[in-house]
Structure to design on (630 residues):
């Protein structure tokens, strides 16, 4: 089984390194970071933290050097899906490509370039420590299923889930993976940007009653859009928020980390995705739209700093 | 006879008023810090920018040392108004007082501390405070003034004070009912200041851009439309369309100096990690919306976000009148 991970950042590295521990899996990685790619080829890909692995795999910045693969795992940030899959499309001419990215709308982009697509949602998280080194911060499950518009076969989905699970990434193959994806989407969209806009940790956002009410307002819009799409959520986002407030009180949302580092955020795939699908279905999402506009304003403030006084 | 004017608070607006009025009448300034008062007494107050002048003013940080006045103008921030008005309690009962604070409710706060007839005002002038004794006059836009109905202030008193401001070189207009102008500015400020405070963007052209679905102008417009609905429910016919005010302000900010944009005061507060005036602006609008049964979800969301930002840096909690 030959697999290519597209985007070997924190999440991509978790998948690539784990899969490479299986003797029957040949793992390739496509990444635009030349230094990172060179480090992986020279010393292997190292996971630290909640994992301790040094995996041997082939990494490339040029997709033409990657042989045809049966499976793809796309893990780039949502705004880079289009260029990344366009660059690697030939690798997957007869492959099934699975997104494990944040938000919604990524599978649609992948389907524009590849024949068979798998919808995926993953909970593990990590961060890059150095070229070739990723620290795994949290473990968790992954859910995958055929993408409705250009589906991979259920047999392919099960094969990938089986390999991932055996490699130490517990993964469920589902006939309909939308519920898992939208549950995480709604959770993320109601928590991530509020941390980013206020500088507060998740726990502090939740203990301020007015902010917790705003969280609920965002969740309600997301739930209404999911319902209009005929999606059954696999758990209650409100309960997930409160659970996270207890177990991850001091967690700084990844979008807050992006804002502090002045990196472009994934807002378009999160709240922007809810708003887009809402418009399609005629479900109003004014709060999610407001959040998209505000994060857009924050990002704008880094690039165009007028003479301010 | 020219009136004796006391200016309470010498921030940007207070300094602009004191500096200009100091050239046409007797002006005293009540500061918070003794050092500030000493500098003003010894060096005078310099105004640069649209006007160049140095005014001699009497200044003190001790309320009892403030000479008798015919007019007092409270130019402090809304957050400091209650304490500032208390410092003048019992002084000059025959005087007229004017409030120029952002938002709603300043008149009530001042009226709790004295029997003075109150003039309501909103000011659109802006400046940059370079030091305790130097303020730059930036935008020479008007101050609008009107009698506060609850103290039955005569319109003539408003007109006299407006004439004095004009004689001093400032733009001013007396109007029989200030509520339409006050609400126009309230709605404008609620939208522009909170968006600036949350995004840390100065008032740039993006605030009025509505080309793409996700452009910030849609949010600003949505905030303003909510405010307009609240004003309508309150029976206030607006003096200016706040969206037009936004469009014009952005245009003015961009002409002549292509990359210049005004920094709304709430953004200044955020940058300085100070408590903001959001309770008096968006908070006041949201409370009015609740009272009148008008939905204001966007203003509520922005109000909550600004309050949460304050909580993030531990700003002192504000008690709202």
């Amino acid at each position: 089984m030959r697999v290519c991970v597209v985007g070997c950042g924190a999440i991509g590295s978790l998948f690539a390194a784990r899969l490479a521990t299986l003797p029957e899996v040949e793992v390739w990685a496509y990444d635009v970071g030349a230094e990172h790619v060179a480090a992986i080829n020279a010393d292997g890909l190292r996971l630290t933290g909640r994992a301790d692995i040094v995996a041997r795999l082939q990494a490339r910045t040029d997709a033409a050097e990657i042989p045809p693969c049966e499976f793809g795992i796309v893990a780039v940030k949502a705004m880079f899906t289009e260029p990344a899959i366009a660059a690697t499309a030939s690798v997957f001419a007869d492959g099934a490509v699975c997104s494990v990215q944040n938000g919604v709308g990524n599978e649609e982009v992948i389907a524009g370039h590849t024949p068979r697509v798998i919808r995926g949602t993953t909970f593990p998280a990590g961060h890059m420590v150095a070229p070739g080194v990723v620290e795994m911060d949290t473990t968790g499950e992954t859910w995958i299923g055929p993408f409705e518009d250009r589906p991979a076969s259920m047999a392919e989905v099960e094969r990938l889930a089986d390999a991932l699970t055996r490699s130490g990434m517990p993964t469920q193959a589902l006939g309909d993976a939308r519920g898992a994806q939208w549950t995480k989407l709604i959770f993320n969209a109601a928590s991530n940007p509020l941390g980013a806009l206020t500088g507060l940790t998740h726990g502090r956002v939740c203990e301020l009653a007015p902010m917790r009410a705003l969280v609920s307002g965002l969740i309600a819009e997301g739930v209404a859009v999911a319902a209009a799409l005929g999606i059954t959520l696999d758990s209650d986002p409100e309960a997930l928020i409160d659970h996270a407030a207890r177990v991850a009180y001091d967690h700084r949302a990844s979008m807050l980390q992006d804002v502090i580092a002045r990196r472009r955020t994934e807002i378009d795939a999160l709240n922007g995705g809810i708003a887009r699908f809402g418009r399609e279905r005629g479900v109003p999402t004014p709060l999610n739209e407001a959040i998209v506009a505000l994060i857009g304003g924050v990002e704008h403030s880094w690039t165009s700093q007028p003479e301010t006084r | 006879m020219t009136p004796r004017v006391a200016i309470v608070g010498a921030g940007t607006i207070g300094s602009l008023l004191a500096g200009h009025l100091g050239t046409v009448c007797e002006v005293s300034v009540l500061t918070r810090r003794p050092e500030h008062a000493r500098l003003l007494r010894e060096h005078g107050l310099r105004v640069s920018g649209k006007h160049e002048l140095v005014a001699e003013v009497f200044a003190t940080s001790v309320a009892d040392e403030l000479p008798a006045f015919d007019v007092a103008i409270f130019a402090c921030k809304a957050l400091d108004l209650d304490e500032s008005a208390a410092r003048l309690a019992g002084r000059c009962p025959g005087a007229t007082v004017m409030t120029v604070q952002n938002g709603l409710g300043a008149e009530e706060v001042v009226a709790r501390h004295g029997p003075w007839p109150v003039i309501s005002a909103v000011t659109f002038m802006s400046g940059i405070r370079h030091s305790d004794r130097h303020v730059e006059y930036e935008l020479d836009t008007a101050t609008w003034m009107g009698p506060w109905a609850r103290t039955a202030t005569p319109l003539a008193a408003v007109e006299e004070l407006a004439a004095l401001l004009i004689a001093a070189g400032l733009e001013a207009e007396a109007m029989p009912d200030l509520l339409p102008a006050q609400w126009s500015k309230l709605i404008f400020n609620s939208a522009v200041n909170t968006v600036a405070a949350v995004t840390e963007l100065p008032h740039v052209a993006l605030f009025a851009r509505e080309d793409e679905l996700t452009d910030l102008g849609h949010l600003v417009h949505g905030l303003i439309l909510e405010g307009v609905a609240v004003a309508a429910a309150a029976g206030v016919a607006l003096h200016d369309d706040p969206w037009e005010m936004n469009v014009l302000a952005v245009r003015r900010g961009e002409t002549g100096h292509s990359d210049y944009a005004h920094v709304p005061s709430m953004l200044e507060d955020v940058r300085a990690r100070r408590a903001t005036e959001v309770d008096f602006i968006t908070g006041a609008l949201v409370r009015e919306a609740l009272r009148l049964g008008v939905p204001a979800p966007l203003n509520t969301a922005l109000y909550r976000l600004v309050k949460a930002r304050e909580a993030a840096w531990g700003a002192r909690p504000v008690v709202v009148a």
Q: What stands out?
A: Residues 179-312 of chain B form a domain with the N-(1-d-carboxylethyl)-l-norvaline Dehydrogenase; domain 2 fold (CATH 1.10.1040.10). Chain B has two domains: 5-174, 179-312.
